[in-house]
Amino acid sequence: PALLLPSGMHLFSANSICRSVVFCSTFHVILSCVNLQSPAVAQALHLAVLQGKGSEASSALQGQLSYLEQSLCKKTTPFLTAVCGKRNILVTSALPYVNNVPHLGNIIGCVLSADVYARYGRLRGWNVLYVCGTDEYGTATENKAREEGLTPQQICDKYHTVHASIYQWFQVDFDYFGRTTTEKQTQIAQNIFWRLHERGFLLEDTVEQLRCEMCQRFLADRFVEGTCPFCAYPEARGDQCDKCGKLINAVELQEPKCKVCNQTPVVRSSKHLFLDLPKLEAPLEQWLEKSMGSGDWTANAKQITRSWLRDGLKPRCITRDLKWGTPVPHPDFSDKVFYVWFDAPIGYLSITANYTDQWEKWWKNPEQVELYNFMAKDNVPFHSVVFPCSLLGAQDNYSLVNHLVATEYLNYEDTKFSKSRGVGVFGDMAKDTGIPSDVWRFYLLYLRPEGQDSAFSWADMAIKNNSELLNNLGNFINRAGMFVSKFFENCVPAMDLQPEDKRLLALVGWELKQYISLMDKVKIRDSLKCILNISRLGNQYIQVNEPWKKIKGGDTDRQRAGTVTGVSVNIACLLSVMLLPYMPTVCQTIREQLNAPPTVTATMLQGTGNFVCCLPAGHHIGVVSPLFQKLEADQIEDLKKRFGGQQVSTMIYSTWPLIRPFPHQGEKVRALKGQKAEKAAITTEVDKLLDLKKQLALAEGKNPEPTLTKGKKK
């Protein structure tokens, strides 16, 4: 209880409120709103404690309680706002397309990475606002609506709920998760447009576009696929090549295909508006030099941005011939909408505006706000060049990105995620595996693709769970708690530190400082290793000192057992704090088992780190139980089969007439040759093709040997 009144009633019981809320962010709201230093609370305390007027105390708190209620109900009254004199951190993650279900790669590349950093910032006492939402306009939404027989708005409503549900299960703690189909989005986007227009940063031009006669529409960039004119990558999109990273005009693609019907589109002319990037190049370069020099930009973000500047900026089209989108307010272009990569990043602003009417204190306050953008590398140029140019050109003192954090790609086993082929784990499937969300978070963050692409592997997930979580982290915390429970009647024993103990504490303190230093630089994966290093040190410490033996000895041995147990349980308490950004539920479970005081968080993460004894001698702990369960081999094998997709070899006898003459595998071989892939990779694809031919020949009752053995490797 925060305060026990003479009547025996509690003025404010944190415990009761904690039990009534679901999200940690909500508890953060409560703690911030019920500020003991605020005049309203001070008045209530004075009335209740000094004057004994408990009934009048509640009246003094009505303003605070109303403010709290509105925040909890997500009303428009602001909760978090940029505060002068504090470190204000604005965190965004790339807005996911509303028309599909995010897979594990989408989740780790954007929302989960941003969530870890936002949680860490709150632990550090920073003023953090984390916003995200669904990107809902564009052709992709129109096509999805047509497929499902719904209106675009109905599709957006449906999949916005799907996304929100997935992120909630993964415990992504947004301060606000919004969407781009709002009136605020239209107002802010059109305002930026007019400011650019008035300052001469927009151009008019007639452009050639790809139109699909079969679908009867101009094709959005991401609905065209073809061969990259720069590197010959066969699956380049109509706006960018994922292999070489270069910008592409869709009409430049070689052998373009409509991704909806697979027909070859034709070129048609249309009048459009362009953002004059060359005119904004000088202020952009000046800003980039400052931002990259002082901020934490990942190496790939710097490299991709510099490659764009090195190649020279060109005017970028910001309008499209579509119906579903933010309307262009110019009378000469009233039949068009804004292009998604002009419109979507403005969603960060409009989502914040839907969260608080003081959104400009975040987005028009570059002197007091630090902006962190989290995304996968394919989104970098739009956040480091195109969107900043829009804001620079608007000349309205916008907050620009200070720290651009981009991941590489996460693949699935040895291939790509594919919803249509049933390959990979998607967000709505993870909870059906029976594996807790904290374990998913841990593994995704453990292999977060920070410097290069990485791959999700079921076998590796089992290894990491069983070795790092179960045998290392969980084993240490459970042993430390069980020793207190079993040997010292749930009461932390007295500690008489010896040189050996002090050496351990110095090593743990160093790992804590490393953790903070790395997290400050957004090295999320490396910071996680510091946590595991500490628990590894703890296990070694227990193993060497053998408290389960010493507790049976004389007074000296029993004293030693008590010291080892007390030190270990305090290290476990430290680990609960460090784990919070990564595994929030496990963190809370540890703190409940150890009955850790609420002050432990603020104490240990101050400055460069401060490992102190938060569970002193005499402290009573709760009930200790295992934190993790083993992932068995048969369970993992079943999951691997379940999410591995349907293999061609199992389909061959029912579908062989449809796959002649094996265009898919043949295209892969040609693509690999075009990329100058290693001989081994080409041979693998050739062998797959030959195996298909062999199975088809057998299905037709023919002898495959003569055609397969002669010149096989050629």
UniProtKB/TrEMBL annotation:
Places the protein is found: Cytoplasm
Enzyme class of the recorded protein, top EC level: ligase
Catalyzed reaction equations: tRNA(Met) + L-methionine + ATP = L-methionyl-tRNA(Met) + AMP + diphosphate
GO molecular function, a single term: methionine-tRNA ligase activity
Chief localization: cytoplasm
Keyword Electron transport among UniProt keywords: no
BP-aspect Gene Ontology terms: methionyl-tRNA aminoacylation
GO cellular component: aminoacyl-tRNA synthetase multienzyme complex; cytosol
Highest taxon above the source species: Eukaryota
EC numbers: 6.1.1.10
Domain WHEP-TRS span(s) in chain numbering: 654-710
Keywords: Aminoacyl-tRNA synthetase, ATP-binding, Cytoplasm, Ligase, Nucleotide-binding, Protein biosynthesis
Family: Belongs to the class-I aminoacyl-tRNA synthetase family.
NCBIfam families reported in the protein's UniProt record: metG, PRK00133.1
Protein name as catalogued: Methionine--tRNA ligase, cytoplasmic
